[in-house]
Amino acid sequence: MPMPIMNHSMSRQRQELHPQTQASNRSIAPQAERNISRGQQHENFLGHQIKICAGPSLPEEIWSHIHSLMPMQDAARVACVSKAFLHSWRCHPDLSFTEETLGLNKNACVTKDETAKIFTSRVDHILRKHSGIGIKTFKLNVASVYNLKGHCHLDRLDWWLQIAIKPGIEEISLSLSLANAKFNFPHSLLSDGIGDSLRSLHLTSCNFHPTVGLGCLRSLASLHLSMVCITEGELERLLTNSFALERLELKYCSEIICLKIPCLPRLSYLEVLICRRLQLIESKASNLSSFRFAGEPHVQFSLAETSRIKKLDWLCSGATFYACTELPISMPNLETLTIHSRTETVNTPMVSSKFLHLKLLNIALGGQTYDYFSLVSFFFVAPSLETFILNVQSIRMGGVSVFADPSNLRRMAEQRHDRLKRVDIINFSSIKSLVELTCYIVESATSLERLTLDTTHAQIPQEILKQQNVASLAIIQASDLRNTISNIHGSTDEDAYTIAEVDELRTQAINIIDFYCPLEYM
Amino acid sequence: MAAPESGDGNNGAARMVTLISSDNTRFEVEAAAASLSQTLQLTILDGGGGGGDGIPLPNVDSATLSKVLEYCIKHAPAAANGGAPNATAVDRAELERFDNEFVNIDQSVLYSLIMAAHNLEIEGLQSLVAKKVADMIKGKSPMEIRRTLGFPDPTPEEQAEMNAHMLEYGWAYE
């Protein structure tokens, strides 16, 4: 806390700070403020002289500011408290229309048609009363769009957008329902410089065909298009004119075959998910640090400066093989890698290249014949790895159970992965190669602090589940930690089972093992 | 410019400046911290506040000014980095923790702070305190809000206006 210094100018004549501008630019004259705080009369609210208490003595523009920070439903409710609030409600900057904000999600007994009708009339009412001034955020999220005459959102949508999209608009989010990509987003509303202030454009399920007339969206930092009909030429032109773009997200935009991203110096986040006809992503953005992709394995990539990418999410069949063999070379500075591969047909090979900075590896993986033990190679590829999360996707079909063939569990000669601190295996089961992998981790991760074996997957047949729990317990037991296991969420009667091979495992520094199994086995 | 004249010829680079509260208490702070105030920034750039001179703030009493400066000193390093785009998560968490504790204060102090932040045009502080008041109001009925904010009970006319509004925006009260 700053301490006052000795006052040696008590007699100094006080001067006001910029007395001229202060009086003209602000609604509070300094003198008035002093008076108010001494509890005198004031007429800021409701046009009446009211006795001033501490609260209402603030000038109207401050109350407006406070009011503007409230969510729409609260703002509508408190508008009646004072004239200042009523006034600021009519200029409320944040209009967010969803069934929730309009108080519609609580009426479960109302039919969808009625909901749509009420939704439309409430939005209409709010916008009719709104001054149309100062709107910064316009969000509309319609769970289902009805085309029935009289209560169609789409009939009114053009008018709503005309009210909302004015100079100063910063955020537009329009989310229509799945099957209704019929609405043409009126991009012309953003032309003539009106789009200059726009920072975020988020469109779901509509047509968006920007023309040359749209011009530059000079402030646009975030563009999200989901189930939007836009051609690759239109998108490329839009991107070229959005040189401040930081985030680009495209989902289910099936018209795009070749995605061309120009040199956008600020673009750091790119997400391209399930664009069905996509063949090629070509990006000249040189500052990309985070990339998320979901799609077909045949999609080609031509990305600039991939060594700057630190975070990658890769959702694609065969992604594990690709991640181990290709990525250490093309994206050597990755720190976080998430892989989701529903079908992994080739086992993960040992390679010599490395991710020197990879700290977190999250793999969700399926494949009938996949050898989970081959994932061991990632511990060599990523020597700095601290967290390893594996989500097994092929519980029902994959691999031989360790109970069917308990012999000759594979092991590797003395290895140490001493950076690894946390391992989660979700959908842990008795698949032999998975047990081998787990044993390997327990044996070689000398600094492991936490191991989670989660067997709570609901769809496993009971017999298998029982076996899995036994397998999990066997590992726990084998690691000779019975006295330090603090988080066993469930247990079976058969915890006397052990597997001879893992029995020999030496005690590790692990102090917590989480073991989850369904309640009926607790 | 009506800024106080600088007696010692210091320019905007002056490291320390003196601020004088309405009750004539003098506070010496780094110019960088005081410059979080848009109003003071101009004065400091004009050469005011240095040496034996001080910048009088006739609208801010010493208790409030002390609180305001506590905020400015804490936030000055981050503000100097242009909103701290390179700040670590730890730094940001620390500022957030500070902010949360900072506004955990008596309502009357809160209002004095709002006025001071407004007068001195300290954007971050204005938002922080306004958000605190907005949070105090959230989820309350109009009458509860009036009481929370210290409004007097409504006159019959005001009550009629309130009722009409509640009817009009019935959904917002559900």
Describe this structure in words.
The complex is a heterodimer of chains A (522) and B (174). Chain A contains 14 helices and 22 strands. With 522 residues, chain A is of the alpha/beta class. In chain A, α11 links the parallel β17 and β18. With 174 residues, chain B is mainly alpha-helical. Chain B has helices at residues 31-34, 38-45, 62-80, 89-102, 107-120, 123-137, 142-149, 156-168, and strands spanning 16-20, 26-30, 55-56. A three-stranded mixed sheet of chain B has the order 2-1-3. In chain B, α3 packs across α5 and α5 (107-120) packs antiparallel against α6 (123-137). Chain B is elongated and about 60 Å long. Classes of the chains: A alpha/beta (522), B mainly alpha (174). At the A-B interface, β1, α1, α2, β3 and α3 of A face β2, α2, β3, α3 and α5 of B.
Helix coverage percent of chain A = 10-25%
Structural class of chain B: mainly alpha
So how many helices of chain A? 14
Strand order, sheet with most strands of chain A: 4-5-6-7-8-9-11-13-15-16-17-18-19-20-22-21
Q: Could you tell me the mean pLDDT of chain B?
A: 82
Enumerate the spans of chain A where pLDDT stays under 50 for 5 or more consecutive residues: 6-54, 477-512, 517-522
Shape of chain A: elongated
* Main beta-sheet annotation of chain A: 16 strands, parallel
Based on CA atoms alone, the radius of gyration of chain A comes out at 31 Å
Approximately what portion of the residues of chain A adopt beta-strand conformation?
15-25%
CATH class of the domain at 60-138 in chain B: Alpha Beta
Strand order of the largest sheet of chain B: 2-1-3
Order of helices and strands of chain B: EEHHEHHHHHH
Q: What oligomeric state do these chains adopt?
A: heterodimer
Care to count the β-strands of chain B? 3
Helix content percent band of chain B: 40-55%
User: What's the mean pLDDT score of chain A?
Assistant: 77
Q: State the end-to-end CA separation of chain A.
A: 55 Å
End-to-end C-alpha gap of chain B: 53 Å
Family (chain B): Belongs to the SKP1 family.
Subunit structure (chain B): Part of a SCF (SKP1-cullin-F-box) protein ligase complex.
Pathway (chain B): Protein modification; protein ubiquitination
Keywords (chain B): Ubl conjugation pathway
